[in-house]
Amino acid sequence: SVSYLPVPLLVLIASALFVRVFYNLYLHPLSKFHGPWYAATTSLVCAFISVAKREDEWLQSLVRKYGSNFIVPLSKLYDTLDGAEHKEMRKTLSGAKVPWAIGLLKKEWESKIDSHIELFASKMQELVTTQETFCLSDRAAEFAADIMALVTFSTPWGFVQNSRDQYGILTSWRHGLTWFGFSNRWRFLRETIVHHWLLGPYTQPSVDDGGGMGHLMRLADEQLRAREKAIEDFGEKEGQMDYLQHAIEAKYHNEPLTYTQKHAHATFLIMAGADTTATALGATLRFLAVNPHVLSKAVDEISSAEKSGLLSAPIQYEESSQHLPYIGACIKESMRLHPPAPNIYERTVPKGGYTIDGTFVPGGCDVACVSYITHRDPDMYAPDPEVYRPERWLVSKEISNQFDSVAFAFGIGYRVCLGKDVATLELWKLIPEFVRRFEMELVEEGSYIVDGGVAYNQGFLVKLRARQ
């Protein structure tokens, strides 16, 4: 215990901490940026705040206190390539045949997604019959997981059909977010332990795990090996170009991707894409459920479009995007207030430094932006940045374009979310179709949880009635 440490050692430790804090606060090249003094010593502060699931609120409080430019220890949420290498890899995974571009999604996959929407609706109708209280946000997550499996491997994994979290993948993903956030925010753990040849494997999921992320990795491994064996035996795959096939055929620096790269891309698309899309689906439905006047407008818009013969069954993406602007505004407003991945997205300042918002930042520093904060900017969204008001997106085309230009739910620039168009297609199809067919009786509003820089919905309980 501390009481058994020699006094000189205690003095030395205290002095070292004092010097570190003093240097970081007053002498460091970045000391002109203000920030909480207690975060000047160690990145553990950010790690523990993440574990407490208070990161979004904490960062918002810092913005109110210090303004939009302040300093805290940043995290590396994902191991990513540097800028040049990342651009090259994105080129590798893009092109005319990319399976997740909105054009190809509509052409090649929309009919299959329609079939899954009908299956989802039939499962919801069963709940209408039984009048069972259930967690709608969980069912939305199961739908999103099946769609990601469909686009990645050409076959859904049975989440919707079986009305359950298959193999515990979604539950394990969420349970793992706390460790994910802690390990990526504590610099020593991230840079030393996680990558250690002996200790690192004990901190990561494995294909030998019985469920959750390890099981997802094993399923992806089985799918990849089976696909490559089929290509070896029978030649090039015929039919739709799914994400796995695209990764198999991709070239990186004129060479095929390694097995590890192909496996990682397939696994990560489902792991990161399913629950984040589900968060957007669940958040939109919850905001509609707790704002009856908004839901009423959405229902009226759908009814009007239906009477005019503008909607198919199920609703097509083009129909939704062109004829249901208020529904689109509801979705955008939901992602503004409850972004699926409110991560601390950092970028490295180029050599020589850069002037940002009138302030010079030395080269090599990491600067970051957080969607939860930018989406509540009091100047951009005045006079009510914290209020759910979809009408703000419909004031004028100019204002709508301005909001779109700063929307950060999927990231911005060349590191924008790879599955953005898949999520967009799901949102603009499932939300209006659900509202068209069902009435929600809110039992429990539930909550929006931010854990490890990733958000999910918890405890959003409803009963359903068929809409007349």
Automatic annotation (TrEMBL):
PANTHER family linked to this entry: CYTOCHROME P450, P450, PUTATIVE (EUROFUNG)-RELATED
What highest taxon heads this organism's lineage? Eukaryota
Q: Which Gene3D superfamilies match?
A: Cytochrome P450
In the UniProt record, does the keyword RNA-binding occur?
no
Q: Which GO terms describe its molecular function?
A: heme binding; iron ion binding; monooxygenase activity; oxidoreductase activity, acting on paired donors, with incorporation or reduction of molecular oxygen
Q: Which cofactor does it need?
A: heme
User: Which spans are transmembrane here?
Assistant: 6-23, 35-52
Q: Which family does it belong to?
A: Belongs to the cytochrome P450 family.
Supply the alphabetized keyword list: Heme, Iron, Membrane, Metal-binding, Monooxygenase, Oxidoreductase, Transmembrane, Transmembrane helix
Protein's recorded name: Cytochrome P450
Q: Which residues bind heme?
A: C417
- Record keyword Glycoprotein present: no
Q: Which residues form a coiled coil?
A: none
